[in-house]
C-alpha cells in the first residue's frame, strides 16, 4: 500500500531493469543560477502528473522494465563527484542497461559518456541539445565546469559530436567550432531549416554509430522551460526537441536531462524535462518492439 | 464611488443580464496540483487588466448585459457540490441567459451541461478543449472525479461530443475513444491539420446543434498557461483556442473556463483564461448583432 | 552510492525498525488552502538540512532504528483513504513499532489513533496541539472532515483528550468543550500560565496512560510556520511545542505532524515540522535508554 | 446560493450596518515596495479562514451588523484619490457608522480622520501604530505622500496624537517629535515598559476623547508581517498590537489597516491584518453590549 | 578585483562611451501591476547570464564603448520625474551618445524622445512596440500617465509614428488611430503579414528619418514575458521583436526597454528584455562598422 | 542625478572611507540550499528601505565615511576565491579601514579574519554568531567548506574564539568543542541566561582583545530570517543579535553578514541582515565619537 517517491512507473528491480534512472543533485559549478541539485526530486514529483501510456508509440510504461536507483550522494567537489559518478554508472552500462540521468549540472554528463563509450568498445557519437557550446577548456578556475563538458568529451572520448540549439558562446568558442569542423545547428538554423531536415542531416553524419544523447534543457526556449540555470532567449521549441528525441532514442545507449533549476519556476520545466525523459524511453522501447 | 470586486464590465443586474458569470471555488478531487478553488477570484482580479472594447468583433462590453452573480458556496463533497450547482444553474438557463462558469475543477462542468441540455429540450453538442479525455468511469474511488466528466456527459446527456487538444490518457481511454467512434483531435492533429480545418470539421459534425463549450485550460500549452492542476506539455497555442472560441461561441448556450490553479504562476494563466472568457462573450454577442 | 529520497537517517529496514515513518499525501477536505499533500516529500527534503545528532538528549540518529516506509497511495475520497490508512497502520502497531505520520490533513489522525488504541488494549490518552478544536461532528457535508477529527476520536475511541494551543472555533465548539468538560489550553492560556505548568497539569490529567500525540502545525504561530492550510495568528511558539513534545514523547505510542502546506512558504514550515518530528524520536529514544 | 467575495460575515446591508468596511486599492506614493493596492482583496480572501466567533469577547459576527461596501475606485493621482475618499467616507460617518478602511498606503488615512473629526464636532485623538513617524511635510515632491500622513493630521486636524511602535525616521523627525512634545513609544520602549503600561499611559493622555485608530502594519515585526511596503526589523509583536486594539477600539470612531503588500509573502500578513480588523470590531461591539 | 553591479560589459567611462545605459526605477502611474521600478536592477542582474559576443553580428561587447551611468533618482510625482529625466538625458544626447533607458513605466519615454528630437534638429520618427496604443490624452487624472505616452509624443514632438504589436485599447483609441491615419500593426496583422513585410513597410514609411525606438515589453506575448505591468495575451513572438530591433537599430538615436515588472516572474522577462537591449546595441554597432 | 546601486549612504570614496563594504557572491560549497551568491545585491536593494539616521546611537550615516567597493569576482573554485579575497581585503585593512563583507557563504570569513589578524599584529578574538559550530576539518571533500570555517580560523589564526547561537552539529563537533574548552553559548543557553549576561561573559573572556565579528545569519531564528542556506529552528531572536552587535562592534576590526539566500523569502532576511550591518556601523561609529 505504501510507495516510495520514485519516478512513476519505475516498477522493475535493478536486476530485471532495462532502463535505469538516477539523479545527481549536484550544481557546484553553476555560473549564473544554482539549484539544479533540486531537479531529480522535482522530476520524480512531476512524473506523478503523467499517464503510463504513450499514445504516439503505443507504449505502456507498465509493460517496460524501468528502475529508479535513487540519487548519487555528491561531494562538494566536482572532481570527486565525477569520479564517483563514473564508478556508479560503469556497472549499470556493463549490466547491459540504458543509464538515464537526471541532473544536476551539465558537467555530470562527462563520466556517463565515458562509461557508455568504454562499454561500447567502439567510437560512439555524442549528440547534445544545448544553448551553449560548452567547449571551453576551463572556466572559473575549474576544468570540469559545466561550461566545458562538450570540450572534454570531444577531446577525450569521441570526435563524432553534434550540438543542436546552440546560440550563445564567447567568440573563441564559435571560432573553435569553425576551425575544428564541429557540426552544430543554432536555434536559428533549426527555425530556418526545419527540425526534420536537421535530424536527417545529423543521422547521416552519425552513420551507424550508437550515441549518447544529452539534453541540456536550456536548448529549449525559456517560454517552455524558464526554470533553468542559464536561460537563453530565442531557443528551440518543445516540439523540436521532442522530434530529436524520438528520432535519436533508438540509437542511444545513454541519455540525460540536465540543468533544470526548479526554484525558478512553478514546476513546468521539471514537467517538460520529465515528459521528454519519458518520451526517450518510449521511443527507445518502441524501436525494440 | 465604491465598486465590488466583480468581473470587470459586469454592469447588468441579474434580471436584465444576457450573460451570467459565476465562480465555483471547488477542487476536492484534484489529482495532481489542487488550487483551482482560487481561480474565480483570480480571474476577477485579472479582468481589471483588460479594456472594455474588443476590436476584432467591434464589441464594447459596456454595451452588453453581463452579470457576475458571485461564487457558489461549495461543499467538501463533490456530489453535494454538483447537486447544488445544478440547482443554481438550472434557473439561470431557464431565465434565457447564457451561464458562464469559472472553475474550479472540470467535474463541475457536468451539472452545467445537464442544466443547459434540459432547457434546450433537444440534443445539444458537447465540445471540450482538454489535454485529457476525462473518459474514465471512476477515478480515485469517486465517480464524479474531474477525470471522468466527459464520460458522464457522454453517457448521460449527449453523444454529440468532440474533444480538441487531447494528448494524455491511459490506454483504456484511447481504446474507448476509438471503439466508441469518439471524435477527437489531438494537439498534434491540430498542429498538422491546422485549427481552421479542425474547426470546419467540428462544425460539420455538429450540424445545426447548439452546444455547450468547455475549456479545460490544460488544452493549452504550459508555455501560455503554466498555472494549472495537471499541465501537459506539447499543447495547443493560445491562438488555436481563441479560434475555436470565436468559431463556436455563436452556437453555444453555455461556457466554462476550468482548472486554472493560480498559485502555480504569477497571474498569466488567469489572465489568459479571463481573456478567453471575454472573447467568448464578444464572439457570442457579435453573432447576435 | 545511490540513496533514496527517504527521511534522513532512516537507515533501518522495516523488520528491525522501532520507529516507522510514513507520509499520507492527502488533503481533499481542506477548507481554506489545500496542499498538505505535498508535505511528506517536503519534509523528507527538509530532513537533509539536519545533523544526525541531538545534543539535548545526547542521541545520535545513526544509533536508532528508523524506517521510512514511503507514502500511502490515497484515494480521492476521504472515507476510503482513512479505511486504507487504518489497514496500513494497524500492522505497524501490531509489530510493536511506533508509527509516525507525516500528513496530509488532520482527518488522517483518526485511523492512526484507532490502530494504536486497539493495540494498547486499554484506554489511551489523545493529546492534540492545534489552533482549532476540530470538534465538529460534520463539516462541508463530510463526516471525516479535517475539522472533525478530535470529535470522532473523543466519541469513538477515548475520553482522555487534551488540546493545547486552541484559539479558533465556532461558538458551538467552545460551548461543547465547556459542557463536556474537555481539558483545553488556549494559546493565551499557555502565554499566561507558562508551558511548563501546562505540561505538568496535562501529565497529571493523563495519569499513567499511554497517549497518541498529534501535532496540527497550526498550533504554532504563523511567524514560525506560515505554510499551512489554515494559519491562525496569536499561536504557540516553536519552543512551547518543543517542550510539549519533549515531555510527552516518552509516553507516546504514536505521533503525527499534520497540515503543513509547503506551497505557502519557502520551506520553513516543513523544516520546523521535520525538526519537531526528529525531536519526538530523540525524546522517545532517550527515555528508553 | 451564490455569494460575493466580500469580507466574511459582512451580512448587513448598508442601511442597517453599524460597521462599514471598504478597501482603497491605491499605492502610488509607495517609496520602497509598491503593491498595497492588492491588500483589500487579499484581506477579503484571508477572511474566509476565520470563524465567526470571537471567544475572548464572546462575540459572534453573525450577530453584528457589518457591511462591506466594496473598493473605492482610485485615481492615479494621490490628491484626487484623497479628495474622493473624503467624499466617500464623510456620508458613512454622517450616517452614524464606524468606517473601517483596508488600505492601500497610509496617506489614505488623512481623509478618513478628517471625515471622522468633522462628524465628531470636537477634538478627537489620533492614535497610530507605525514603525515610522510619517511626520514629514512633503516627500518625493508630493505633500500627500504616505510618509507625511501623521504630520498633516496633526497640523490640520488634531494635536492629540500618539504613535506606538516607531523606530525609523530621519533625524529631523525625531527632533520634530521632541520639540513638539509628541507622545511616542518606540518598539524598544514597548519591549521595556510592557504594552499594558503603555496602553494605560496612552489612555490617560487621551482623556475622554474619542479617537481614530490607524494601524500601519509595519508597526509589527516582519516575522509576523513580512508582506509590507516598508518592513522594519525589531518591531512590535502581534500580541502587543492586539492589546492596543482591544483597549482602544471602544473609544474609536474610525479604524484602518494599512500598507499590507500581499505580493511579498504567501498570505500571512493579510491574514494577520484581517484578524486584527476583526479583533477591532469584536472589541468595539463588546464594549457596546 | 572588485566590480560594480553595472550592466555587464559596460566597461567604458562616460566620456569615451558611445552607448549610455541608465535605469529609471519609477512606476507611480501603473494601472494594473506596479513594480517596474525594480526592472533596471533586475536587468543588470540578468546581464550576468550573457556572453560578450553576438554571433549574428560578429560583435563583441568588449570592443564597444558602453557606459552604465546608473539609475535616475525618481520623485514620487511623475511630472517632476519626467522633468528631471529630460534634464538628465539631454546632455547625454548633446554629447553625441545613444541613450538607452531601462524603465520603469512607459511614461518615461516622452522626455527621452524629446531630448533626442531636439538634438536631431529635424523631425525624427517614433517607433513603438506595444500591446497598447497609449494614445489617451489623460488617464486616472494624470496627463503623463503611462497610458498616454504615444499621444503626447505624437502631439508634441513628431507625427511620424508607427506602433507594432497593438491589440488592446478603448474604442476611442482605435477610432482616434483610424481618424488620424496612424500607422499601426496589430499582433494579428504581424502573424498574418509576417514580420519581414511589416518591417519593410515601416522602413518605407519612415523614409530617411532617424528614429527613437521604444520597446514596451508587453508587445511580446506573455509566454515569453510574463513579468509585466499589463500583460496582454496573443502578442508578438520574441523573434518578431528581435527582427524589428535588428532592422531599426541602425537608424535609431535612442532606445528603451520598458514595463518589465520583475516581481511577477522568476527572471525570464528581465532576461529577454536585457537580451533585446544587447541585440539593439549589437545591431547598431554592426551598422557602423 | 544618477546614482549607482551601491549600499545606501555609502557616499565616501575609497580613500576617505572608514568603513569599506563589499560583497562576495560565492556559494559553491553550500550543503543544503545554494543562493547566497545573490545576497550582496539583495542587501544593497534592501538598504533603500532604511533611513540614514540611527536614533539609538544618534548617528547619521550621512556624517560617516562609508564606501561600497562593489563585489569580488569569484572563481568557481573555493580555494582560488578565498585566495583572491585575502588579497583583496588585506590592503583594505592595511589602509586602516574596517572591512565589512556581505556573503556569500561562511567559508569566505576565513581570509577576512586572516587579513585582519595580520594587520592587528597581535592575537585577535573571533566571535561568531552561528547555528552551527563549523568546526569540521573537511566536508564534502573540501577543506574550505562553509562548514569548516571556524575550525580553520581557530587552528590557524586565533584560539580566542566564542560562538553564540549554536544548536546543530554532529556529535564529533560537540565533543571537540568540549575537549578543546571552546567557549560557546547555545541558543537555549541564551534563552535561559539572557543575552546581557552572555555578552558580559564574552567580554570578560575576550579581555582587551580586538575581535573579528562574524554573523552567520542562521544564528537567528527562521521566523526572523527564513531566507537562508541552512535554516535551523529554535534560534536567537533578532533583538539578541542586535544586542551582541551593539556590544561588540566597538572592539571589532572586521565584520561580516553571511549565508543569506534571498531566493528563499521575499526580502525579509536581506532586510534584517542589512539592518544589522548598519547597526554594526552605527555602534562602531558611536564608540569613536
Ligand atoms: Mn550545457
Ligand atoms: Mn546550456
Ligand atoms: Mn478536464
Ligand atoms: Mn485536463
Ligand atoms: Mn486540526
Ligand atoms: Mn488546526
Ligand atoms: Mn505609516
Ligand atoms: Mn510605516
Ligand atoms: Mn506602453
Ligand atoms: Mn503596453
Ligand atoms: Mn556558519
Ligand atoms: Mn550556520
TrEMBL record, chains A, B, C, D, E, F:
* SUPFAM superfamilies in the record: Arginase/deacetylase (SSF52768)
Recorded hits in CDD domains, A to Z, give: Agmatinase-like_2
Which co-factor is required? Mn(2+)
Q: Which InterPro entries match?
A: Agmatinase-rel, Ureohydrolase, Ureohydrolase_dom_sf, Ureohydrolase_Mn_BS
Q: Which domain of life is it from?
A: Archaea
Q: Which Gene3D superfamilies match?
A: Ureohydrolase domain (3.40.800.10)
Give one Pfam family.
Arginase
Entry GO MF terms: agmatinase activity; metal ion binding
Give the keywords, sorted. Answer: Hydrolase, Manganese, Metal-binding
**TM spans (from-to):** none
Instruction: Note how many cofactor molecules are bound and how.
Output: Binds 2 manganese ions per subunit.
PROSITE patterns linked: ARGINASE_1, ARGINASE_2
Record EC number: 3.5.3.11
Leading EC class: hydrolase
Annotated NCBIfam families:
agmatinase
Could you say which protein family the record assigns here? Belongs to the arginase family. Agmatinase subfamily.
Its protein name is Agmatinase
Species of origin reads Methanolobus tindarius DSM 2278
Amino acid at each position: 500500500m505504501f510507495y516510495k517517491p520514485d519516478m512513476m512507473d519505475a516498477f522493475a528491480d535493478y536486476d530485471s531493469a532495462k532502463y535505469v534512472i538516477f539523479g545527481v543533485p549536484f550544481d557546484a559549478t553553476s555560473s549564473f543560477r544554482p539549484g539544479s541539485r533540486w531537479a531529480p526530486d522535482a522530476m520524480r514529483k512531476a512524473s506523478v502528473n503523467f499517464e503510463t501510456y504513450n499514445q504516439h508509440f503505443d507504449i505502456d510504461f507498465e509493460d517496460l522494465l524501468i528502475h529508479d536507483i535513487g540519487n548519487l550522494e555528491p561531494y562538494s567537489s566536482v572532481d570527486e563527484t565525477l569520479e564517483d559518478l563514473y564508478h556508479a554508472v560503469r556497472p549499470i552500462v556493463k549490466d547491459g542497461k540504458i543509464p538515464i540521468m537526471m541532473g544536476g549540472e551539465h558537467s555530470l554528463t562527462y563520466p556517463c559518456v565515458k562509461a557508455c563509450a568504454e562499454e561500447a568498445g567502439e567510437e560512439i557519437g555524442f549528440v547534445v541539445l544545448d544553448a551553449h557550446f560548452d567547449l571551453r577548456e576551463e572556466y572559473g578556475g575549474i576544468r570540469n565546469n559545466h561550461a566545458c563538458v562538450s570540450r572534454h568529451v570531444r577531446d577525450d572520448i569521441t570526435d563524432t559530436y553534434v550540438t543542436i540549439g546552440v546560440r550563445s558562446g564567447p567568440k573563441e568558442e564559435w571560432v573553435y567550432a569553425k576551425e575544428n569542423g564541429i557540426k552544430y545547428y543554432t536555434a536559428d538554423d533549426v527555425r530556418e531549416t526545419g527540425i526534420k531536415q536537421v535530424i536527417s542531416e545529423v543521422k547521416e553524419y552519425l552513420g551507424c554509430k550508437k550515441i549518447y544523447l544529452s539534453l541540456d534543457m536550456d536548448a529549449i526556449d525559456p517560454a517552455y522551460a524558464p526554470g533553468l540555470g542559464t536561460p537563453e532567449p530565442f531557443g528551440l521549441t518543445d516540439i523540436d526537441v521532442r522530434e530529436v528525441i524520438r528520432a535519436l532514442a533508438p540509437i542511444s545507449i545513454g541519455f540525460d536531462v540536465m540543468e533544470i533549476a526548479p526554484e525558478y519556476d512553478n514546476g513546468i520545466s521539471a514537467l517538460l524535462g520529465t515528459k521528454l525523459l519519458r518520451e526517450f524511453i518510449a521511443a527507445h522501447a518502441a524501436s525494440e518492439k
